[in-house]
Amino acid sequence: MSELTKRVPKQHIVGFIGSIVLTVLAAWTAVGSNLPVPWIITAIMVLAVIQAFIQLFMFMHMTETDSGKIQAGNMLYGFFIAVVIVAGSIWTMSFGYTHDHGGNSDTEQHEEHMDH
Amino acid sequence: MSAHTDTNTGPLEYRSKEGRMNILGFWIFLGAEVVLFSTLFATYAVLFGRTADAPAPSELFEMPMVLIMTFLLLTSSFTCGIAIHHMRRGSLKGLVVWLIVTLALGLGFLGFEIYEFVHYAHEGASLPSSAFWSAFFVLTGTHGLHVLLGISWAVLILIQLRQRGLTPVTSRKVFVVGLYWHFLDVIWIFIFTSVYLIGMVV
């Protein structure tokens, strides 16, 4: 692999610049764009996943050596379980949430429901 | 790919069977860490908005602060990669210098995080303030403890490097602590996005 002998680690620099761009883009999408909230959440989560893959492939060299496939499979399995736990928890708890608060899930509710 | 399977010319950390198995084993540990953090993310997501009498996250989260912490950790992940690159070129000095830069950035991140927590506590948001803030401090605090552990671990590896130099064993240890460090940034990307950015938007 030519990466070994190069003086300048091109892959790392590309990954670093990519990460900065994705971070700034996500921050701007959150506070600078006027997109509807569900769109913002979807967009920044997609940006986060792309950035995580940059770390795994360009910085951590997840797929190098003959164990690469096992390593990648193991991490994908970990992320799959993570998505199931997070999405499953939100889905399960969403029922009681609507019932308790009459569908009012905005951040001001602590002022309106001080007695909770 | 093939260069890494060559036990004579590939990177030092892959030259022994033991070294390769250790690295594979560490990847399996990282998979379990992803799941550990997912339970904390799930708790946080479920308790989002349950701030009771304490301030809402949108009142306390500040973009400049969060961006500084993110860039500190992101840059440290990059410099850690540069350290590994120097190690693979056989440069002990380059490795040590970049590893120290990495740790300095990591300490900077921790400093900001401690400042942030103290600031929130002054504003009336601490661990016992509400369900939301409990979930917030446990999630970000667990990540912060991982960073502290990573720094301490890397310092011990630096001492070993000084005593033993670059050998297949020490390179494997550096590579593994490097993986751990990059992984902390992976978790932070999701904290940055789903805790701070969403906390500022919703």
From TrEMBL, chain A:
It catalyses: 2 a quinol + O2 = 2 a quinone + 2 H2O. This is Quinol oxidase subunit 4. Belongs to the cytochrome c oxidase bacterial subunit 4 family. It comes from the Bacteria. It is found in: Cell membrane. GO terms for molecular function: cytochrome bo3 ubiquinol oxidase activity; oxidoreductase activity, acting on diphenols and related substances as donors, oxygen as acceptor; proton transmembrane transporter activity. InterPro entries: Cyt_c_oxidase_su4_prok (IPR005171), Cytochrome_c_oxidase_bac_sub4 (IPR050968), QoxD (IPR014250). The keyword Transmembrane applies. It holds the Pfam family COX4_pro. GO terms for cellular component: cytochrome o ubiquinol oxidase complex; plasma membrane. Its EC number is 1.10.3.-. Catalyzes quinol oxidation with the concomitant reduction of oxygen to water. The keyword Membrane applies. The lineage of its organism: Bacteria, Bacillati, Bacillota, Bacilli, Bacillales. GO terms for biological process: aerobic electron transport chain; ATP synthesis coupled electron transport; electron transport coupled proton transport. It is a multi-pass membrane protein. The chain crosses the membrane at residues 12-31, 37-60, 72-91. Keywords: Cell membrane, Membrane, Oxidoreductase, Transmembrane, Transmembrane helix.
UniProtKB/TrEMBL annotation, chain B:
One of its GO terms (cellular component) is plasma membrane. PROSITE patterns: COX3 (PS50253). Pfam families: COX3. Keywords: Cell membrane, Membrane, Oxidoreductase, Transmembrane, Transmembrane helix. The keyword Transmembrane applies. InterPro entries: Cyt_c/ubiquinol_Oxase_su3, Cyt_c_oxidase-like_su3, Cyt_c_oxidase_su3-like_sf, Cyt_c_oxidase_su3_a-hlx, QoxC, Ubiquinol_oxase_su3_dom. It is a multi-pass membrane protein. One of its GO terms (biological process) is aerobic electron transport chain. Residues 24-200 form the Heme-copper oxidase subunit III family profile domain. The keyword Hydrolase does not apply. It is found in: Cell membrane. It catalyses: 2 a quinol + O2 = 2 a quinone + 2 H2O. The chain crosses the membrane at residues 24-45, 65-84, 96-115, 135-159, 179-199. It is an enzyme of class 1 (oxidoreductase). Signal peptide: none annotated. Its EC number is 1.10.3.-. GO terms for molecular function: cytochrome-c oxidase activity; oxidoreductase activity. Catalyzes quinol oxidation with the concomitant reduction of oxygen to water. Belongs to the cytochrome c oxidase subunit 3 family. This is Quinol oxidase subunit 3. It comes from Alteribacillus persepolensis. The lineage of its organism: Bacteria, Bacillati, Bacillota, Bacilli, Bacillales.
